[in-house]
Amino acid sequence: MKRKKQIQFLLFFCLLVLAGLVSIQYYLVQNTYQLNSKTYINEVKKQIAPVIESTEMDSIEEQFFDEFKNLCLQRVNDSITLMQFRSKAKFMADSIQKLSQLYLQSQFEDYPILKEIRLRAQITQIIFETNGIYDTLLKATENPIIFFGDAIQGNAFNISTGIVQSSADQKKDSVNKNLNYFYKHHQTTDMDISNFQQKIWEKMFGVLIAGIVLIFSVILLFFYMYRSLIKQKKIAEIKTDFANNISHELKTPLTSLNLITKSLEKESAFQNSASARGLVNALSRQNIRIQTIVDRVTESSLEPQKIEEKKIDIVRLLKDVISDFNTPTHDLKNEIYPDTFILTTDAHQMERVVQNLLENAVKYSPEATEILIKSYAKDTFYFIEVTDYGHGIPAPEQKRVFDKFYRIPQGNRHDIKGLGLGLYFCKQIMKALKGAIYIKNSTKKGSTFVLKIPV
C-alpha cells in the first residue's frame, strides 16, 4: 500500500510538472508571437512609409481637405442639408479614393509589399466652430468617412492617428467678413495584412516545433518512467506471491518429513518391519513431491523443450488423456468431434497442455461440478475447449494469468496450491507449436480455455 501511494504521488507530481512546463511553453510562445507580430508590423510600416508620406499623397490629401472644409462650411451656414452634406462627402471621398488607388497601383513595382496589404485612411470626427459656437458634424460613434483605400473587415493595424485643423488662430472668411470659423477633424490610417497570422507562424515554425518536441519528449519520458515503476511493482508483487506460494507448497511435505524423521528415530519403528517399510515409503513419496516442486521451478528458468512434431490422431490423444485422468470429485464430460482427425503436432507436449488445463479446472471449481472438454475442426484450425463451472476469472486478470509465476490475487490467502507456472508453460508450448491459448469467456459461473492448433 505504501508503494502504491508513492507511485500515485509521483504520478501527481509528474502531471504537475508537465502542466507547469506546458504553461511556461505557452507563455513563451505567446510572448514570442506578440514580439514577432510587432516586429513584422514595424517592418511593413517602414516599407510603405515612403509611399504614404510621399508628396503625391500629400497633394491628393491636401486637395481633398481644402474642398472638404468648404463643404463643412456650407453645412455650418445651413447652405445644404445634412443629407446633402453626407451625399457630397461620400462623392468627394469616392473621387479621392480612385486617385489614391491609381497612385498606389503605380507603386506596386517598386514596393511589392503593397500587393499584400490593404490601406485605409478615414475621418472619425469633425468639429466646426463659427463665432464661438461649436458644431460636431461627425461624431466618433458614427460611421467614419473613408477617403483613402477600402473598408477593412476585422482587426486592422493602426499606422497613425492624428488631428488635422485649419490653424490655431481664427480666420475670416473671404466672402463673409463677419464670419470667423475654426475647423478640426480626427483621422486614422490603418492597414490589413493578408495572411498575417500565417506569416507570423511561419517565422515561428522552428520555435513551435522545438516546443512541441520538448513537451512530447517529457511526456514520453514520464510515461516510460511510470511504466517502468508499474512494471517493477508488478515484479515485486510476483516475487512476493511466488515466495508465499512456494512456502505453502513446501510446507506440507516438509512437515511430513519432520514427522517421519521423528518416527524413524524411535527404536520401535525398526521392531515392526511393516511399519518401517511404510515410513520409508512415505519418506520416498514426500521426497518425490519436493523434487517435483523443485523441477517445476527449475523448468521455468530454462528454454522451452524442443518440439518434435509428427502426424497424430488428436481425437485418440484426447480420449486417452480423458480416460487416464482420475478425478473422483468432479464429473468429466466430453464432446469430441469428429471421430478421427489427423494433424501434425507434438503429442507429448499437447498432452501436457490438456492435462494442465484439466488439473486447473479441478483446482478452481467446486466439488461435484461438471468439467467439459470439447473439440472441433473449423476452417484451418482444430480447437480444444476445457470448461469449468468455478468462480471465473475477472476481465483485468484474463491476460495476466498466462504470465510467469502470476496467480490471481486472493489477499494473503493461499487456499489453492500452485506456483503460477501451469498456464505459463501452456502458453509457451502452444507458441512453439505455432498455435494459441486464450480464454473464450469467463464469468462468475466458470471459465472456458481454448487451444487453437493449426491444421
From TrEMBL:
A Pfam family of this chain: HisKA
Domain of life: Bacteria
EC annotation from Swiss-Prot or TrEMBL: 2.7.13.3
PROSITE patterns in the cross-refs: HIS_KIN
Uppermost EC category: transferase
Keywords: Kinase, Membrane, Phosphoprotein, Transferase, Transmembrane, Transmembrane helix, Two-component regulatory system
Residue stretches making up the Histidine kinase domain: 245-455
InterPro entries on file: BphY/WalK/GraS-like, HATPase_C_sf, HATPase_dom, His_kinase_dom, HisK_dim/P_dom, HisK_dim/P_sf, Sig_transdc_His_kin-like_C
Spans through the membrane: 204-226
Region forming the signal peptide: none
Molecular function in Gene Ontology: kinase activity
Catalyzed chemical reaction(s): ATP + protein L-histidine = ADP + protein N-phospho-L-histidine
UniProt entry tagged with the keyword Membrane: yes
Record protein name field: histidine kinase
Species in which this protein is naturally found: Galbibacter pacificus
